[in-house]
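debug: dumping io for the single-chain case to check the tokenizer round-trip. Nothing else runs in this session.
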Amino acid sequence: MNLPLSSPLCFSLKLLDCSSSSGMNLLSVSVVLVVLVGAWAQIKVTRPLCDSAEAEEAALAAQDYLNGQHTHGYKYTLNRIEDIKVMAMPDGNSTYVLEVDLLETDCHVLDPTPLANCTVRPKMMTSVEGDCDVVMKKVGGAFTVTAFKCKTEESTEDLCLGCPVLLPLNDTTALSFVRETLVTVNNRTKNITYSLLEVGRMSSQVVSGGPTYIAEYIITEANCTETCSPLLDASAARGICYAKGKEGAHTVDCKMFPVQVKCYSNTTVAAASPPHVHAHAHAHPHHHGFRHHKLTALHNPHLSGLLSSESSESGEVADAPAPIVKRDAPVEPVLEANPVLLVPLCPGRVRHF
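debug: decoded output
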């Protein structure tokens, strides 16, 4: 059925020929686009200061989430907020897109020491940096991470001549040194035997008389019958060992982690499950060629369009389910005008180096 040529709708859209089927098709497409653009027009986009309390709250929530996904190696702490964008949705909730820089600390993920009490690894010991883009939803005042991409790499700044140099985690000579120092540890203990759970990092330093090895590795209580295998039970004793020297002449000291327990009202206790760490009972860890443990690289590729490509790298992918934010049209919302400031919005302050 054709609309009369005098129809107000046809009058307002003079370019359309409402007397033809092609005109009606164009009209339908135009109406759909108007509806979609109208929906996106209700999204208000702001860019808070990277050093604002709002940005700090979101960045710390992202930091804690990323550490929760990191099941091996060391904890990371916030160093700088590079950028942040907040999209206020019509339903009252908000989506945050932020870029954060993280630094590796000396606390292993199994170490219950609060992150605030962990020390950032200095540059001369080859610091490791994480560059992450994170998408978060804030509903009812609580943040939920829906997507992230991370790139982890060694810092190449301020490297000194003669400083320790990181070795691949599957370096055979360094692993032989680790096994030798573990024998020393077990010779000093009574009624318990420890197995290698994970190598944290290994490095070498050139000194007179040849290279000196420096190693950090995680030990766990072992179940020994004919052979010894790591106990993966939550109540098993675990700790981190620091070894230095060369084969046949070394020192090694270990710090045991307190066993985490949950208390119940009926006075019974049960061991809390620590982060899962895959045991490397064999000589070669799975991180072939890597000299440090990487952050989980990617989660939820459906939202990769909101994330920059700078933080992406191939690597471990998180498999935990998370909500997906649906985008109905690839139309960029209009950025709300902010007052003119004498200082840049971003990046924020550097917390460490």
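debug: round-trip ok. The domain at 168-257 is CATH 3.10.450.10 (Nuclear Transport Factor 2; Chain: A,).
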